[in-house]
Amino acid sequence: MHAQGSHSEDETLCTLGGVLHGGTLMALADATGAVCAFLNLPEGAQGTTTVESKTNFLRAVRSGHATATAKPLHAGRKLIVVETEIHDDEGRLVAKVTQTQAVL
Question: I need a labelling partner for 63 at 20 to 30 A (CA). Which of 19, 22, 50, 89 fits?
């Protein structure tokens, strides 16, 4: 199962140059990836937690929304690997995140 989330423009989440802060994009990806992992938990598991995350920033978000979509690359008994893409309002790829979630 896939997961999707978004974040709208908010000056408090931007750098002095008016660009959406990379940490905000990482938090959006982490939350979206966690939902994706949760939706793909093996039977009997109680939850997940992020154990590793790698972000590639590809372009800045200067206005509008950032939308994240996550898909599982591997859903095992102990680990779930998720790939999350973040796009801007024009559909351009802003960041790509690969994270590993431990199954609890």
Answer: 50
